[in-house]
Design brief:
The chain is an all-alpha fold. The protein contains 1 helix and no strands. It is rod-shaped and about 120 Å long.
């Protein structure tokens, strides 16, 4: 009888130790998940900012190209005017 009680007690202690280890692992996993979520949100924010900047730069490029084309057209018309083409 005592042997069975001792065996059950050892089994209980082992189970409690395993439970404690698993609870610690779970807490660490929750912390890691929270950190990963924060990192993901930061990455999303940075990507959004980069995309916004890219769109702004594309708009600037389009405006610059439009102005360049207009200046070339004006120069061409002026040369035609000067040389009578």
């Amino acid at each position: 009888m005592q042997g069975a009680v001792r065996e059950k007690t050892l089994s209980l202690k082992a189970t409690e130790a395993e439970k404690t280890t698993l609870e610690k692992d779970l807490a660490l996993s929750h912390t890691e998940i929270a950190n990963l979520k924060r990192m993901l949100e930061l990455e999303r924010s940075q990507v959004k900012a980069s995309d916004t900047k890219a769109v702004e730069l594309l708009g600037q490029i389009r405006n610059t190209n439009k102005k360049t084309t207009q200046l070339k057209d004006e120069q061409f018309r002026y040369q035609r005017y000067l040389f009578g083409f």
